[in-house]
Amino acid sequence: VLVLYSAVALASAKDDYNRGVEFFKKGDYRSAIASFRSAEKQGMESAALYYNLGSAYYKLENYQASKKYFTRVTYYPDQRALAEFNLGMIALKQNNEERALGHFKYAQANSSDEKIVDAATRTITGLTGTGKGKRWGAYVQANVGYDDNISVTPDNLALGVDDTFWDLYASADVVLQGQRKNGWLADVAYFRIDYTDSDSFDQDFYTLGIRKEHRFSSWDTTAHLKYGNSSFGGEDLQSFYKLRLLGSRPVSANAKLILQYRYDDFTSENTLYDYLEGWRQRAQIRYFRSTVRNSQQLYYEGELNKRGELVTSTVSYEYSPTRHTLGGKYTHKFSGKWYLTGDLAYRVSDFPASATLDRDDTRWTLAAYLDYFIDPTLQVKSNIKYIENDSTLDIYTYDKTMISIGLSKLF
Question: Is 355 helix (H, G, I), strand (E, B) or coil?
């Protein structure tokens, strides 16, 4: 009897839903809402039902009710970008341009529908100004923290000095031609970490780059070329060129496959680290899956190096490791504001054997991140990270723990 009743109720809910669609097409939005709500009360749950309710309430200028149902649609990953666009339209009606920009930028960056991307791009341009020079974006993150082993030199040698620090990362890009998801962009980035007591371990770098975003059928692709320079302890360290090729495509309604290749070419600007000069290649395959409340990632990365030779008074070997990394990340969404992420990776490094030694390393990295979104563009970020590196050479065996808290802002 219960099974029969459930089947009858489901059929009745579907009939009410279909009537609601017909009322909506005729412009009778009040009757459409009544039918949709009847289907909802009978247990129907779907992105289409919530989307139609949000649209009907929007037509009647009941923006609070419309916002409620479009927010429910965001819980369905394959429909979220469309729902975010509509939430942006509601925010405009409520005269909240800052919140509207956050929704439109999400839709622009995450939608696979060119019409939505185009509409979001035009709306963003209208809100921020017209002309090619206004088609820009920027990101800033600043943190303070504590590291119990800051003295990790560029070749991963750690000596065990602890200190507090602040760091700053800032980047910006501009669309030169086409659109953000299908065009040419130029970008610039800067990073600095400054320790309170130990200036000899301060680091910074800058990069200048150009990239091409393009869609090939179901693949979203990026080709990115950058030039940069880095320093360590206030002294020049390296100049470098970096090439990144990235492609991602959906494999199901809520999962995608990501392929990435990176090539780095380093030129030494400091004789102490000449052995780091050379090239590095990394290839990665990543599987990403998301649901309403969580997301999971699994990945493998292989790395090849062709560097120089490290020569000291006691040892001599080529600094050209072959590396394999396995990792995974899990994010849980407690609400629309709080996100907790766990990140675990294991890496094996095999250095070429020499007449004096044979170095092999293994490294575990464990991290936890807690993020709070003040709005779609502003968040409080906190994390704790632990690294344990074991090596056949005792001087390269170390562990370190770092904690930090800060703010990030997307413009």
Answer: coil
Those residues whose C-beta lies under 8 Å from the C-beta of residue 137, and which sit 6 or more positions away, are 105, 172, 173, 174, 180, 410, 411
| Amino acid at the residue 101 | L
> 23-38 burial, b for 16+ CB within 10 Å, e for fewer?
bbeeeebebbbebbeb
Q: Dihedral, CA atoms, 171, 176, 178, 180, nearest 10 degrees?
A: 0
205 pLDDT more than 60: yes
Residue 21 has pLDDT above 50, yes or no: yes
pLDDT at 11: 63
Instruction: Give which of 348, 368, 338 is closest to 303, Cα–Cα.
Output: 348
DSSP 353: P
Residue 253 has pLDDT above 70, yes or no: no
Q: What is the rounded (10 degree) CA torsion for 206, 209, 214, 220?
A: -20
Distance (Å, whole) CA 6 – CA 85: 35
Residue 97 to residue 116: CA distance in whole angstroms: 18
* Amino acid identity at 255: A
Q: How far apart are CA 393 and CA 354, in angstroms?
A: 13
The burial class, CB within 10 Å (0-12 / 13-18 / 19+), for 103 is: buried
State the Cα–Cα distance between residues 355 and 386, nearest whole angstrom: 34
Mean model confidence pLDDT for the chain: 88
Number of Cβ atoms within 10 Å of the Cβ of 92 = 19
Side-chain half-sphere CA neighbours of 4 within 13 A? 1
CA nearest neighbour of 376 among 81, 65, 58: 81
